[in-house]
Known about the structure:
CATH topology of the largest domain: 2,3-Dihydroxybiphenyl 1,2-Dioxygenase, domain 1
Keywords: Iron, Metal-binding, Repeat
Largest sheet: 9 strands, mixed
Number of helices: 8
Family: Belongs to the 4HPPD family.
Oligomer: single chain
GO biological process, one term: aromatic amino acid metabolic process
Radius of gyration: 22 Å
Pfam families: Glyoxalase
CATH superfamily of the largest domain: 2,3-Dihydroxybiphenyl 1,2-Dioxygenase, domain 1
Helix content: 10-25%
Number of domains: 2
Distance between the termini: 73 Å
Shape: globular
Mean pLDDT: 84
Structural class: alpha+beta
Organism: Scyliorhinus torazame
CATH architecture of the largest domain: Roll
Amino acid sequence: MAVPVQRLSHIAFHVGDGERLARDLIQRFRFQLFGSRVTERVRQLVLRRGSAVFMVNESPGGRRGEPGPRGLLYDVAPAQAVDSACNVSFEVRDVERAALLLERLGCQVLVPPRPVEDELGWVAYSVVRSVVGNVSHTLIQRSGYRGDFLPGFGPPPPAEQEAAGGPGAITHFDHITYACPPQQSAHILDWYRRCFGFQRFLLNRSDDLDDGYVIKGNNQGMRLSAMEYWKCSEVGMSMPAIEEKKVNCKLVLAESLPNPDKNQIDTFLEQHGGAGIQHVGLYTTDIISTCKSLTDAGVQFFYPPSGYYSETVKWQEIMKAGQDPEVLSHYGILLDSEVDDVHCKGETKCQASTERYLMQMFTKPIFCEETLFLELIERRNASGFGAGNIRALWKSVQACMDQRERNKIVKEISAGNRFANDVDI
């Protein structure tokens, strides 16, 4: 029996400079700092926009933060030293029962159930290791707590409570994408199915239930597959209505294919030191306004290939959706109409509609390493991910990374030439 998940609580980072990341999330992405916890051993900051909540964890002086009253709360420190988003926290009804079930299923419980309380009530939490690289899952039972977030976190100083928001509302996390090595997707999908009740769903009509959605080109390639948790999976319904606090949670797997040339998934695995969270999708109700606001604040985005908007079919598709191709081209926003594929209990239902489409764009990496992106996504009655957008995003990210690699080689050659000249002198 799988552990019933109530909802996604938050996503946690572990970084060397928490203040810098928090400042970027506030000033550039318009998140609001609404909670902090600082001890001599750790600094934990909590930021939100809509129901999307990030926790930023930092161990001052590079010391490993261990769970405990003065150490980390609601998390464990990863083994990797690289900056990383590495914890996805779920709310559950009964954390004792959840931890016991997961342990019986063979999961490693990193932090056994423990209570935390303050004047607003109590919560209980446990942390378990996932099968995806450094990713862990914190399970939180918070039915006995009346506060905004969790015990142990106080309000930040008034000077740090900068206003969030701005044009184009970001309302919640749309999806989380893991990057993983070849031949790992099936194992990961099975683990989330057995442990948390996640079910496979089809990204688009080109997605195969067994083989996933495969992109290949220029001696490179990746395989995408996806899963989601529906509240109704506990009672056997096929398609639920979504309650406000019980939003479905999508997890996407991006698996590198064995190819001669290194691709963006290989780059992530190399620089991150293994599998992990490659990007987080932020849902916005107005991607054009959000993109303008974030661009004005200094956020940099990937742009699609130059011919994307000049294709007649794409131009007509954008016009038919009621959008302006010139505006989308200016900001680099991708649009894809969708054949709405929903896989549930062995059945696939496909319904084509020009009224169903989604718009997306990727930020450039938010860390020095190419290990984490953020994505903006706006859905117009579209539940999956358009095949055209996936290919265009792949090409734009890959082109940028290829150019960075070429620039790196040129710099290394130039440095070598300078060294040789110095030796001759």
